[in-house]
Design a protein that fits this description.
Length: 703
């Protein structure tokens, strides 16, 4: 087809002539014709100011937090590690919600979202429904359990629930793989954009290293509080960057109506693919169910999320912070997808697809290409690249803080640093942050070898390795008849299956999407309209082996397959090892499911839970309950006045009251009832009851 697209039947000529800025009959359009397609000195200054501001916000937030904490506690250095890792558990809902939002909606979404829409159509927009489902499930299923246990590491729960340190370490291993991969992809996303806008003057490797050092520094310096408030600042920058694209694009194309018409003519508008074939890249079922499973794991059990929603004052606030994330996710997903449509409509309008013309090296550079062609006003390109780095820094800093907290609580503290001071524990956590920062940079360098959009790479790898983690926690929180053997074997099965699928799919690159593109007005010597398939991954190969069907599965199904394999394996092994006979503390099971199992036991005589009800874990539902608990502890320490001289309130030790007969033993614990002078008891003295029964479950360790 040699005639321009506006003369073909695909897009009517009237439509093209009605569009503002139409390039009918215009000269060739190439990026080299633009004189301002590189970063200007002003843009470099804007980017530098943003990076410096991120450092400053993190440092200032940490100083303010320390001064406020010392003023409240009355002593410098009091509970320093708790302040560093958990922000003192006194954070506000809105900052925590924004931190959660930008931690998992980063530069990956700002670059990958528009690229996904540009090349593959609008089906991805339906993922917002999956995110809503995932956030609601996380708030209802996981938050009530983890918040009331008041844990620092979410993997402490696994040891308490399954009475096995090996299961706890397995969970840590899954988190480590997931977070390191995610940090690497997050660092790579803005680096490839900066390389393009600088025309190669700043290589990808240098950008990855610099951004890794910056976020490692302010995370190690200020801890969770610095991460949260830096995320708030970075969320504003991310919003400004994505809105700049949308506003300028709508002005250039004459409104959303024209954008919609052009995108529809090229087959980019699609919302009704209900295919049951799991090999179809995006379907309603895959996006809603698959993303629902993936995001319930992300916001429910990932340490970065648990660490944040456990840092607020009440459980209601914790649940609210997770629900607010779902509302913010709607904005970021819809705005990034709208930006993708606008970019596609613009290049369809000028009849030249930069990707098909070979002017960009990979699909992730389509957004910066558009920015440099159409938003070349000084400051604006710098602001956009800053928004990409904002998303990357927020994601990486959150993962660094989470990994350091779990490494301390799960590996070092129980074995080597049980009696470490608060100051020593804080500095060890800082050392862990630095080590994981180095691993993030190395993974970022490896990510340069990945194909396809960064969005697909992130969802495919983190979804596949996060799925066994979700299955592991789900078995603990929802199914009391699953024991430690089932949890361990099930998580291994899920890891093997989901990892095999994700790696095999990426190496074979089977997913092929063919949507129309146009290069008729490109100065490349091959005018005309093309229907070039966009290969996501590596080189397309013919299907010649039975396993190729498995490698052709859409990446959105990996979380479902991985979590299902984990749960199924856990059920089977627990059945054969008689897990249903083991007793489980109700505090470790979701309260809604506790009621459900009790209902089955009463009404249907189906006993799936042998639960115990210890008073070891008291629900922490509001700040008042916490304050009352603290006051009650303080009230036991002052002495209580007697008739003649002061005496301790708690007489659970060997104190003898004046006039008391001591020839015969007496009970030690008399529930604070004083023994009258001269009173003789016949009961033997009971020792060893100085509080062991009342010790919180979360403090009891298993062998």
């Amino acid at each position: 087809m040699n005639n321009p697209l506006w003369q073909s039947n695909l897009v009517p000529q009237a439509l093209w002539s009605s569009l503002p800025g139409s390039r009918q009959g215009a000269g060739a359009f190439t990026k080299h014709q633009q004189t301002n397609n590189q970063f200007s000195p002003v843009d470099y200054v804007v980017l530098g100011v943003f990076l410096a501001a991120s450092l400053a916000v993190g440092i200032v937030a940490s100083f303010i937090g320390r001064r406020k904490g010392n003023a409240e506690d009355g002593s410098a250095g009091s509970d320093e590690k708790e302040e560093f890792v958990m922000g003192g558990r006194k954070q506000q809902v809105i900052p925590v919600a924004l931190s959660l939002l930008v931690s998992f909606n980063s530069a990956i979404l700002i670059l990958g979202g528009p690229a996904e829409i540009y090349f593959n159509g609008t089906m991805y927009v339906l993922s917002i429904f999956g995110e809503q489902i995932g956030c609601v499930l996380a708030a209802l299923i996981f938050v009530p359990v983890f918040y009331q246990l008041r844990l620092t590491s979410s993997f402490e729960y696994l040891e308490l629930r399954f009475k096995s340190r090996l299961v706890r370490l397995m969970g840590n291993f899954l988190l480590l793989i997931n977070n390191v991969i995610y940090m690497g992809i997050a660092l790579y996303a803005p680096a490839t954009a900066l390389q393009y806008v600088s025309n190669g003057a700043i290589p990808v490797e240098a950008s990855i290293a610099v951004s890794g050092v910056i976020c490692t520094f302010y995370t190690a310096w200020g801890g969770l509080k610095a991460v949260i408030w830096t995320d708030v600042f970075q969320s504003v920058v991310m919003t400004a960057g994505i809105l700049a694209i949308i506003i300028r694009g709508l002005i250039d194309l004459g409104g959303i109506g024209n954008v919609w018409q052009i995108s529809y003519k090229y087959g980019r508008i699609e919302f009704d693919n209900f295919s049951l074939d799991p090999r179809v890249r995006h379907t309603v079922w895959g996006l809603v169910v698959g993303n629902g499973i993936a995001y319930s794991s992300t916001f429910g059990v990932f340490q970065a999320s648990v660490q944040r929603y456990c840092s607020v004052k009440t459980m209601r606030q914790a649940q609210l912070s997770v629900v607010l994330v779902s509302l913010g996710a709607i904005f970021f997903v819809v705005s990034s997808c709208l930006a993708g449509l606008i970019i596609f409509a613009y290049y369809a309008n000028v009849a030249c697809d930069p990707s098909a013309a070979g002017w960009i090296e990979d699909s992730n550079q389509i957004v910066p290409f558009y920015v440099m062609e159409n938003l070349s006003i000084p400051v604006v390109p710098g602001l956009f690249i800053a928004s990409l780095f904002a998303g990357a820094l927020s994601s990486v800093s959150s993962s660094l803080s989470a990994l350091a907290a779990t490494t301390w609580e799960d590996f070092f503290k129980p074995y080597w640093c049980l009696n470490a001071t608060e100051a020593k524990a804080t500095w060890i956590n800082r050392l862990f942050i630095v080590c994981y920062g180095v691993s993030a940079v190395l993974m970022g360098l490896i990510s340069t070898r990945f194909g396809g959009t960064v969005l697909q790479a992130s969802l495919a790898f983190t979804g596949s390795f996060g799925a066994p983690l979700l299955g592991l926690f789900s078995m603990g929180v929802l199914f009391p008849f699953v024991n430690k053997y089932g949890a361990l074997v099930g998580s291994v099965c899920g890891l093997i299956i989901s990892g095999w699928l994700s790696i095999g799919s990426y190496l074979n690159g089977k997913q092929l999407v063919g949507l129309p593109t146009n290069i008729s007005n490109c100065d490349v010597g091959t005018p005309g309209t093309t229907l070039l398939p966009t290969t996501v991954g590596t080189t397309q190969a013919p299907v010649v082996e039975p396993l190729d069907d498995w490698y052709s599965l859409s990446y959105v199904w990996f979380p479902i397959i991985g979590s299902a394999a984990t749960t199924a394996g856990g059920f089977i092994v627990s059945l054969f090892t008689r897990g249903y006979r083991e007793e489980v503390d109700e505090a470790f099971i979701n309260p809604y499911f506790v009621r459900f199992y009790k209902f089955l036991s009463r009404s249907c005589n189906i006993n799936l839970m042998r639960a115990t009800r210890s008073n070891a874990v008291q629900p922490v539902d509001d700040a008042e309950a916490i304050e009352v608990s603290e006051l009650s502890k303080q009230s036991n320490s002052p002495s209580r006045q007697g008739d003649d001289e002061p005496k301790p309130v708690d007489q659970s030790e060997d104190e003898v009251q004046p006039g008391e007969t001591t020839d015969e033993p007496k009970p030690v614990d008399q529930s604070e009832d004083e023994v009258q002078p001269g009173e003789v008891t016949d009961e033997p003295k009971r020792e060893g009851q100085s509080g062991e029964e009342d010790r919180p479950v979360a403090d009891k360790k298993t062998d």
